[in-house]
Amino acid sequence: MAQGTISIPDVRSAFTGRVIAPGDPEYDRARSVHDGSVDRRPAVIIRPADAAEVARVVALARETRLELAVRSGGHSGAGHSVTEGGIVLDLSDMRALDIDVEGRTAWAETGLTAGEYTNTVGAHGLVTGFGDTGSVGIGGLTLGGGIGFLVRKHGMTIDNLLAADVVTADGELLRADEDNHPDLFWAIRGGGGNFGVATRFRFRLRELPSIVGLSRMSSFQSFLAACAGSCGFSCWAACFCVVSFFLYVPVVIVWLWDGLLWPRDRS
Ligand SMILES: Cc1cc2nc3c(=O)[nH]c(=O)nc-3n(C[C@H](O)[C@H](O)[C@H](O)COP(=O)(O)OP(=O)(O)OC[C@H]3O[C@@H](n4cnc5c(N)ncnc54)[C@H](O)[C@@H]3O)c2cc1C
Questions:
Q1: Which CATH number does 8-93 carry?
Q2: How far is C-alpha 181 from the geometric centre of its chain's CA atoms?
Q3: How confident is the model at residue 208 (pLDDT cuts 50, 70, 90)?
Q4: Nearest CA among 210, 150, 200 for reference residue 177
Q5: Nearest atom, ligand 1, residue 192 CA
Q6: Ligand 1 binding site (Cβ under 6 Å of any ligand atom)
Q7: CA–CA distance, 181 with 136 (Å, rounded to integer)
Q8: What is the pTM of this model?
Q9: Domain locations in the chain?
Q10: Amino acid 247: pLDDT
């Protein structure tokens, strides 16, 4: 394929995973990210079916010299998981989760969200500590470090990362852990997404027999996230609107009551 251009029919025939291009009905939804103020139009969004296809997307970006954005849960505050005119490698169709209950470990593909992972391992009374929001992707969260409610008891998410499968910029699929490619393993634990595309992680599981509290906060956050999603702006903007609403409504009522409905003689 020529540099700087991409043939969508060729890409569609080269991948078994989903290929979404401008004009497709799901294009606008697929290019939107958590921060609604980020509005970029990639040339194509590819949702690989497996690690081999991830490597082929990386090769395609190298061949065409188009910018590559990697997306797990799409919660990057800077909008790093979508690109203008480039290729989005969207991992959201790679969501396999293999749990070894006896061994207290799990292999998780990076298209999973923290909430999906937590709900599934939670059915076994087990947990890996992520953050406070279920819709965040385990890809970006883990590579960034991961701080959540369990950090004091069990450490950060990366303290519970045992291994990762990573596709490097030259298209190689590597297993990184304490013994294999330890430098890469060191780098991905907090270094962000620039060391390769992580296709799956192996986490340590901890026992968590019960959860006390926090449900109200979580539902309030979910409510805000739902408002934000439907209005197309960020969770913080939704938070601001909700708080403003409850602050200003009483003020307006008093003002109407005092000033408009029963005007005083101010002379
Ligand atoms: C509402 C909200 C709540 C949050 N709460 C917490 C919290 O409690 N604790 C906490 O630690 N963080 C929290 N964060 C921050 C969050 O962890 C980061 O923004 C994280 O990068 C988002 O990951 P993602 O996969 O959803 O985002 P994405 O936008 O998909 O990815 C973020 C970055 O990681 C890269 N990336 C993603 N997946 C991969 C991959 N598989 N391989 C290589 N690179 C990849 C992307 O290219 C991008 O640069 C929160 C963010 C939001 C918006």
A1: 3.30.43.10
A2: 26
A3: confident
A4: 200
A5: 34
A6: 34, 69-77, 80-81, 91, 110, 131-133, 136-137, 139-141, 143-148, 193, 197-198, 235
A7: 27
A8: 0.83
A9: 8-93, 97-207, 215-261
A10: 73
